[in-house]
Amino acid sequence: MKLTSKGRYAVTAMLDLAFHDEAGPVTLSHISQRQDISLSYLEQLFTRLRRHKLVISTRGPGGGYSLSRPADDIAVAEIIAAVDEALDTTRCSGANNCHEGRPCLTHELWDDLSHQIYQFLNEITLGKLVEEKGIRDVAARQDGRMHDTDGPEIPAPSLKARLGQL
Predict the structure, then answer these.
(1) Within 13 A of 44's CA, how many CA atoms are on the CB side?
(2) 87 FRET partner, CA 20 to 30 A, in 112, 117, 121, 156?
């Protein structure tokens, strides 16, 4: 399985939005600057995210995007699915026809892995990510870069390590 840039960028942009939308709608140009994602690509992603009701848009001066519901209610798997990213590790994309029109010898293994990945990402919400100290430190550094200051990055336990402790 390979998660393409579409899924990674969508999650990154939504996490940026989760960090910044308390002050009001966030413009795609600000997300673009902080995350180094092209504005035209963000426009395409946010069209899909809006269609799936993950974000709401506000027009006019002071306009931009906001999360459609609390960050704790938006799972990473939902974001990836909204931009048409498949979380499938099978060779046949889940069609059960990987070997001469039938499932291959390892189909069940890869299908089970796909379900495990989906379950893992479905348990991680934007709210959980926003609470992560390491992620907050990176967001603060990126905000500082937009204001021409750059603070130190402090390493913190990864989300994977913390989930493993549960």
Answers:
(1) 10
(2) 156
Domain 5-131 matching CATH 1.10.10.10: the answer reads yes
Contact 13, 46 (CB under 8 A): yes
The whole-angstrom distance between residue 138's C-alpha and the CA centroid of its chain comes to: 15
Residue 73: what pLDDT?
98
pTM over 0.70: yes
What is the distance between the alpha carbons of residues 91 and 112, in angstroms, rounded to a whole number?
13
Rounded CA gap, 161 and 74, in Å? 21
pLDDT, residue 11, reads: 97
Give CA–CA dist 66/50, Å, rounded.
10
